[in-house]
Design goal:
It is built from three helices and two strands, in the order ααββα. By secondary structure, it is mostly helical. It has two domains: 1-56, no CATH class; 58-89. It has a two-stranded antiparallel sheet.
């Protein structure tokens, strides 16, 4: 499944990204040193030979953790202020 379709599926159709947007975003992340291109592992069939693989790099991992912490703080504050309904137990 192409990455654009995976993104849509993972977000329950709330987020859609076209191939141009995806390529531009990946290039920007590469330029910023947040991700690096990596070699495919295992057997690559001809259909997948054009596919590129990426992983988070040092700064990208730090930025991811900072963003997760920030979002966690926002959610905790919203719950404390009773802006978010707590799930029924």
């Amino acid at each position: 499944m192409p990455s654009c379709k995976k993104t849509t599926k993972l977000s329950n159709r709330e987020f859609r990204m076209g191939p141009g947007t995806l390529c531009t975003t990946l290039q920007r992340l590469l330029d910023l040193g947040l991700i690096v291109a990596v070699q495919a592992t295992g057997t690559v069939n001809q259909r997948d030979s054009h596919r590129r693989y990426y992983r988070l790099h040092g700064k990208g991992k730090l930025l991811r953790q900072a963003e997760l912490s920030r979002l966690d703080s926002v959610v905790r504050l919203a719950k404390r202020k009773k802006l978010v309904a707590r799930p029924a137990e």
